[in-house]
Amino acid sequence: MHPNYVKADELTKPVIDSAFRVHRHFGPGLLEPIYQKALNRDLTLEGIASKREVKVPIEYRGEVFDEYIRADIFVEECLLVELKVVEKISPAHIAQTLSYMRLLDAPIGLILNFYEPYLKNGIRRLTLPGADN
Predict the structure, then answer these.
(1) What pLDDT shows up at residue 132?
(2) Residue 98: inside a domain, yes or no?
(3) Could you give the C-alpha distances from 107 to 73, 99, 115, in angstroms and in order?
């Protein structure tokens, strides 16, 4: 089992609760950065450490590239949260999130689609292969 799996698993509920509060306040369809800032603020108020726009370095065979990716929100250094405002979560969104999870060594990831009128229909929980064994 991944050493941070239990911690990340326990954080999923309070993070989703925060996302529900943000969604109830703003409703669906705003720009992603608004939800990102609001969710990060809500997590802070709930006493949950999180970082926005985390730069994830890309390394290949000993070289760290100048290019990097940005993860939306990284919670307690173990749970990745990717925010979307799209009609439907696609396989590309899932692949992207899993790649970010691998690069950050995050055992669990959440994709939260704020486009949905009912946020519960826009939540996707992902686990790195083997992280829960």
Answers:
(1) 92
(2) yes
(3) 14, 11, 26
Main-chain dihedrals φ then ψ at residue 40, nearest 5 degrees:
-60, -40
pLDDT digits (tens, 9 = 90+) for 65-101: 988 889 999 999 999 999 999 999 999 999 999 999 9
Dihedral angle of Cα 35, 95, 11, 27, to the nearest 10 degrees:
20
The structure tokens listed for 83 are 């925010």
Number of folded domains in the chain? 1
Average pLDDT of the segment spanning 108-128: 97
The per-residue pLDDT for range 20-32, each reduced to its tens digit, is: 999 999 999 899 9
Are 80 and 69 in contact by the 8 Å Cβ rule? The answer is no
132 domain-assigned: no
CA–CA–CA angle 42, 16, 4 (5° rounding) = 100
* Domain that includes residue 64, residue range: 5-127
CATH number of the CATH domain containing 74: 3.40.1350
pLDDT score, position 67:
87
Query: What amino acid occupies position 75?
Result: V
Residue written as tokens 């925010």? 83
For residue 100, being part of any structural domain is answered with yes
